[in-house]
Design goal:
Blueprint (H helix, E strand, L loop, with lengths): L35 H10 L1 H7 L5 H24 L6 H30 L6 H32 L3 H28 L8 H18 L18 H16 L1
Helix pairs in contact: 1-2, 1-3, 3-4, 3-5, 4-5, 4-7, 5-6
Length: 248
């Protein structure tokens, strides 16, 4: 008998990747989104379903549904903001909030698409637009959730500084979750999108500057829109100064 050599070590079993499954792997993610209500439910309960649908033909309908829902939610929250002062602000504040969000998104959209392309992302422009629409929708839904709290304080205090800080706090929380949704859209594509964090800073600055450009959102003024240009930090500093002087 021929002598046998040493037995080779066993080949270790292949361990499957622990990463998330690809979009569309679950049948629920493939269900179409055809209405505003469905878009709201999907982005809260099944964000992967929204991300999957944005890659399919006819994704424009999903984007329009999310934009429509975001506009309606921003108008409702704007009414809560306007209820602090009443009068003209009951219709002016909702319009300013909705228009400000749309203009901010339109201003920042080109830079987001350029950053994505430079980072090697294969996302189409229509998909990037859909991700921004999802960001706005999730933001405004969360603001609607905070609306009862904001309304309670607006009816029980006359402090302009307190209400401004409260709305800013709610907006920061809503923006955080909106940006997290947008980031997930690139992560699940396995895109690097290295400039995304830079873009997040840009969109934050644009939005806070938009609140100054469309002032007043809280309180009243002689004109519907400001007559002078001002940086948002300068505007906030002046508001804090006036509020401290009024309390003396």
């Amino acid at each position: 008998m021929n002598p046998t050599g040493p037995t080779p070590p066993p080949v270790p079993p292949t361990i499957p990747s622990a990463g998330p499954p690809p979009l569309g792997a679950h049948p629920d993610e493939q269900a179409p989104i055809g209405s505003v209500i469905t878009a709201v439910e999907a982005i809260l309960r099944q964000p992967r379903r929204v991300l999957y649908q944005l890659r399919q033909p006819g994704a424009g309908r999903v984007t329009l549904a999310m934009l429509g829902a975001a506009i309606m939610c921003s108008l409702v929250y704007g009414i809560v903001i306007g209820s602090f002062s009443g009068g003209t602000q009951l219709w002016a504040a909702p319009v300013k909030v909705a228009v400000g969000l749309l203009i901010s998104a339109a201003i920042c959209l080109p830079s987001l698409y350029i950053f994505a392309c430079l980072s090697g992302s294969t996302a189409r422009l229509s998909e990037v637009v859909g991700l921004v629409a999802g960001l706005l929708l999730l933001m405004t839904i969360l603001l609607i959730g905070f609306a009862p709290v904001a309304w309670l304080f607006s009816q029980s205090t006359e402090s302009l500084l307190l209400m401004g800080a409260l709305h800013l706090f709610f907006w920061l929380i809503a923006t955080y979750f909106g940006l997290r949704f947008l980031n997930a859209g690139f992560v699940l594509r396995e895109d690097r999108a290295g400039g995304l964090k830079v873009w997040m800073v840009i969109v934050l600055l644009v939005m806070v500057q938009m609140t100054t450009a469309l002032r007043p959102l809280l309180g009243t003024a002689d004109t519907l829109l400001p007559t002078e240009k001002r940086f948002f930090l300068s505007h906030w500093g002046e508001c804090i100064k006036h509020a401290s002087q009024a309390e003396r």
